[in-house]
Amino acid sequence: MIESLLVANRGEIARRIIRTAKRLGVRAIAVHSEVDADLPFVTEADEAVCVGPANPAQSYRNTEAILAAATSTGAQAIHPGYGFLSENADFARTVEASGLIWVGPDADAISAMGDKINARNLMAAAGVPVAPGTTEPAADLAAAVAAAADIGYPVMVKAAAGGGGMGMAVAADETALRTEYDKVRAFAERMFGDGSVLIERYFPRVRHVEVQILGLADGRVVAIGERECSVQRRNQKLVEESPSPAVSPELRSRLLAAAVRAGAAVNYRNAGTVECLLDPTSGEFFFLEMNTRLQVEHPVTELVYGLDLVEEQLRVAAGLAPTFDPDALTPRGHAIELRVNAEDPKRFLPGPGAIRTWVEPAGEGVRVDSGYVEGNTVTPFYDSLMAKLLVTAPTRAEAIERARAAVASFEIAGPKQNLPFFTNLLENPEFISGDYDTAIVARMR
């Protein structure tokens, strides 16, 4: 097993990785910005290094400072968490070139999946269903208009280098496409340094379902069940559950097999997620993207399958076998994750601030992965996620009931928070039925 691990991230995911590392006897090293010095992940690490000011480009995305911290602390490996540098192929190459262990897929897999058009083409060649769309970037507006005419409206205009729901827009007709193409291209150049745009069929009623994969040290790729991620605002997830209420045993078999093919196509190692769009009427699914990192919502898979995915990541990185039998994975019960954000519960606009009250729910089947405690301040410099509230129960109905009680007993004062939204969602007949899609939040407003 790895002996010392530098966590190149912050907040709840850094805290969560550190927890597993310490349980395994691995020395945990945190890096942090100046404004994060008092957060729990810093104090809970065995060692911590300040890597710069609040601006992520000067701290959590500062590759030189992070590598210097790894050298000064004698770190053996680096875990990037999610966001920041987690899907930066150049950083992964630099880490390995420095003689450190990279806890994630290799740089070639990250590069292959980081470009959405290249990823689509690779998946199609591997026999993974892909939605109708362009096989190369739409070089200009005329090319985008021609592609959309072939595909048929409505279309999704998408940044080829984007991710996390960013850099996407829907065009219902050519007039909208002419507006959205320029907007997405400009956004992509500004955010990702790559203005490449793809045009893809847009499905007005669709579900977002993803499969957790783990590429093992022996070369096998294992699919560890699916997660339903259709409760979203601005194409970003708010709620995840496993198993998906939309997936039958027959569909699950097809989904998992396709995800394994996707991983095998790029010789995938470590944890990753194959995201798909599911047509709830026809049962057809299409490859959306592969996230070459640990997902925010990985705990719902952990709860259903009784695993610690961070431990499995560390074992793969160390060349060790998994703790489980890949041929005997058995799901148990139902899990739901609610992303508790520092944002208002109606417009979902950020509302950072000092935390005056923070009382987490507890009890059977309740887990909270949080990045803050009472007295901390949620600053405006980073993502608004404060905590992930998770529940598990033998059935989905019982999990929903448990989630209602947990939301009611979670006390937060200071920053804005979206717990009232979850109160409404968990009473929403559409959500309760399990027959919902990615427009559910829009219909609730």
From TrEMBL:
- Alphabetized PROSITE patterns for the sequence: ATP_GRASP (PS50975), BC (PS50979), CPSASE_1 (PS00866), CPSASE_2 (PS00867)
Q: Which Pfam families match?
A: Biotin_carb_C (PF02785), Biotin_carb_N (PF00289), CPSase_L_D2 (PF02786)
Please give the InterPro entries that the UniProt record associates with this protein: ATP-grasp, BC-like_N, Biotin_carboxylase_complex, Biotin_carboxylation_dom, Biotin_COase_C, CPAse_ATP-bd, PreATP-grasp_dom_sf, Rudment_hybrid_motif
Q: Which UniProt keywords apply?
A: ATP-binding, Biotin, Ligase, Nucleotide-binding
Q: Protein biosynthesis: present as a keyword of the record?
A: no
EC numbers: 6.3.4.14
Q: Does the keyword Transmembrane helix apply?
A: no
Which branch of life, at top level?
Answer: Bacteria
**Example of a GO MF term:** biotin carboxylase activity
Q: What's the protein name?
A: biotin carboxylase
Q: Which organism is it from?
A: Micromonospora endophytica
